[in-house]
Design a protein that fits this description.
single chain; mainly alpha; 3 strands; Rossmann fold
Amino acid sequence: HAVKRVLEDLSEFGLPSIFINCWVHSESSAIIESIAKQLGIIAEPSIERIKNRLGGSAIVFAFDEIDQAKGLNFLYAILEEINMAGIILISNKPEFIATLDERIRSRLQPQIIEFRNYKPEEIKGILKERRKYAFYEETLALVGVTKPYA
């Protein structure tokens, strides 16, 4: 996942990040709870407690499958309350940004980066390259001699 790699790179420069899969956490309350948990906030998760924990420090939020979120109150709250927040929204639906409430869209000032679909030959090349790292020598031979689970 390209975004996870970007977040890892940012962390090397001391910039913390939060990654939320909105397919898994689709309700605003579940998203806030997941953010709070990733920041070490256990009791009573809220935007106010998240803001206090950050203490004005910069952070990047990445929301995968954002189009699966049921309501975007959490996004509006982040944009309103957390000043030093970078926000990455990931969606398979190119029209998603156009469906956002104008108040959210104007605060986001989105820049769209489109990742095109791979062609079959490109996928084949990627898999060829990755198989070098997927198996150690003798791995397949060992698979053949292990006993199946009872």
